[in-house]
Predict the 3D structure of the following.
Amino acid sequence: MIRLDHKTAGGEIYSKGYVRENGLEPSQRHDGAGSRVSVDSLPGEKELRLYNLADSLPTAMLYQLTVLPDGGRQFTYVSRGVEWLHELTSAQVLADAEVLYSQMLPEYRLMLRECEDKALVNMSTIRVHVQNRLPSGQLRWFTHVCTPLRLADGRLVWDGVEVDITEHKQTAENLELRVAERTGALREANRFLRSEIEEHKRAEKELRNIQKRYQAVVEEQTEVICRLDPEGRFLFVNDTFCTFLGRSKEELLGTLWAPQAHSDDVERVQTELSLISTRNPIVAIENRIVDARGTERWMQFVNRGFFDSTGNLAEIQCVGRDITDRKEVEARLQESEARFKALFYQAVDGIVFMPIEGTTLVVNDAFARMHGYDSPREMEHLRLTDLDTPESARLAPERLRRLKSGEAMNFEVEHYRKDGSTFPLEVSCQVIESNGKRFYLGFHHDITERKETEKALRESEERYRVLIEDSIVGIGISKGNKILFANKALLDLFGYDSVDEVPPGGLLALMAPEFKEAVRERIERREAGNPISSSYELRIVRKDGATRDVQLQAAYVNVGNERLTQTTFRDVTELKKTEEERKRFEIRVQQAQKLESLGILAGGIAHDFNNILQIILANLNMMQKVVPETNVARSLFERMEESIDRAKDLTRQMLAYAGKSSFNIHILDSGNAVQEIVQFIKPLISKKIVLKTEIEKDLPSIEADTAQLHQVVMNLVLNAAEASDDDRGGVVTVSVTARHCTEAYLHESRMMPGAPEGEYICIEITDTGCGMDRDTLEKIFDPFFSTKFAGRGLGMSAVLGIMRAHKGAVLVDSVPGGGTAVRVFFPVAGNPVLDSAKKERDITPSPQTGRGTLLFADDEPDMAELAQLMLQDMGYTVFIAGNGLEALDMFKSHSDEITCVVLDLSMPQLDGLQTLVEMRRIKPGLKAVLMSGYAEQEIESRVAGEPIDAFLGKPFDMQSVTKILQTLLK
């Protein structure tokens, strides 16, 4: 057997010296160029055609190599396929085998060596797939089929063929990848894609069969081979080609190739064949051929052009293989892919398919739309994690870990839209495997509407919960006597921390004993269906034993099949207290209004009474002047004068009650003043009574009338002493302290309106006497009310009037059998509440005989006539008038003569003040004295802004008139 060891083309020898089976190398001769050429190796015409055929194989390389003694390798022959398979020249490979072996990846080089070692045991043929990295950086797959041969001289020679199967590998991997992609995606939607999966399985099976057939073709050199001349006529066809077409070589040789091709492909094939040139000698074409039976088959031809020395096309060598099965598989895959794409891109939910470690995002239209993108292509540059909000991104690593572990997951995430807004999604995903690679498959459902519905439901529930839990009204739900639910307000009302703490018996157990029976009857009547008011009031007992008044309202509610009772409790304790306080306040207002009315009445009575006393006193003064000292009637006059003085005291008390008594305001040391008053009162009370004083040091001063202060303290101390005066005796304590009083504290005062908040001096008188009940306490300030048999009932009324005039307050506490405490409050000096206080003028005239002309006006004719007689008796010239207009007319007639006017404040037509104003318009600086049955303080408040020279309070004696007139007219 002679092995191929040379390759000639264009006069070149592509061998380093072939080895024959006997182990001898052929003899050598020199060609004309000086190279040694083996004489025996010169090829014949048949061998040259075999060499050319070997060099024409587009995806194969034939070789022979010898194993050197040191274990190295040396190629003795390589076909020209090494140039396009390994990007090396034959000369490079023949010179150094390592340049070819170094392309093989290390693991495959080791595998090849192991396969060779195993083959040497039986000297058997080996077939192995290896992967090489070419100088250009490409990775290519090759199949080696080689057989060892031991020569006679002991040397080892390997004959083999290497075929490029990269395209086959890529096609297989792509097909497997496509099948895996489709299979993984369709697994999630298996109820729609089960038939497609089966189709993929059949396709995979057919693909494996094709791979086996293809492998057999490659390994056994069974490709369809032919040669064409430039016009397209067959120059050569192999047996396989003839068998494939069902025609003999005689039928084919010399004929055109076009009739054997499908008529629809002829023009395209001719166009592509015309592209063959010296620069592009190889053209691969896929087209259909038609055999003798009319059957169409798809073929893949690798067409290589051979050119003569002038560069003209000499012939075309075509090596083809049947790809009909592959085309059918591809067609089915395309059809399956079309259906898959329809399902993938038209799905309502968003679908994501991507390598688990990859960055390329493959999504459908629904996924793009829900994220605000116009098409999936816009999202190809994104990673899935780019869409996660920070919170979702934080959870992503743990979810990825679980997915990689094989867990199928369902969870919710929040994604960004293209415009930056966010929205929630529900994700169902898993990792699938295909062809050794892992892919992420996820189905994404936009749950914005569901979230909004859930949010609205939560907000509604929260509003209801807040309404119930945070309601200021206690709300409870019960079944029978068992409380199932109670809000915080109800638990707080009953004093419990939870429903579990409520004692057995439910609501009935929490009610005051006096209400239980009535409530039980209401419940029984309600259960019996009798109409009954759902709202009523009762008293409950808290956990701490305290009681509260509540307003209860009950109603039935149906929860499922259960009939429950919903009860609301409103704490009305404070409301009832407020209502009671309001009633007390109304009583106090009514009392104050009554006292004010009585005060006005008392003031009016005192005024009129003083006018009457004035006439009586004036007449008495006249009688005292005309009756001799020795007359028995003088003693009667003295008794009359004493009675008049007692009447004056009575009217003074009435004016004090009305708050219109005359005040002489001074800055007083309250402590010393009270101490002096107590010392004055001490002899007036029973010796059985212990009178104690408790006076703070360094008390601030007050502005008060000393006499009025004296009357207040004396009235209160005497009342306390009388209340304590019994066989056992008693204790009366007078204390003086400085206090800051709030408006709330002073609100309890018997004054109306209440005194303002501020600094006060408190004078408190307490006793250990019998005390007073509530009814008596409410009446103590009523005029003419007295608990003493002989009392007039004006003492406490006067205290109230004096304190009202001083802008102070009065508070009284008393318990029957427990004594009484009365506190009076005077504002400290400088307090603005005393802005109405005035100082009394000190008038100390010297007695003189009167001179001048006076005008005396009073609406009491008797008083006017008596005054005229008395004043004329003093030496004055006197005009009298009965009202303001009459006095004004008389003054106009005698204004030059009149030096002073004495006017009654209360007169008809024009009162005294109005009359004075008109007179001073006529005669500015006119001296004026005003008279009134009211106190001077009351008068000053009415004549503010108009200077008055003097005031005469009725009843006055003639000596007082003389002093005033002498002072004014001296």
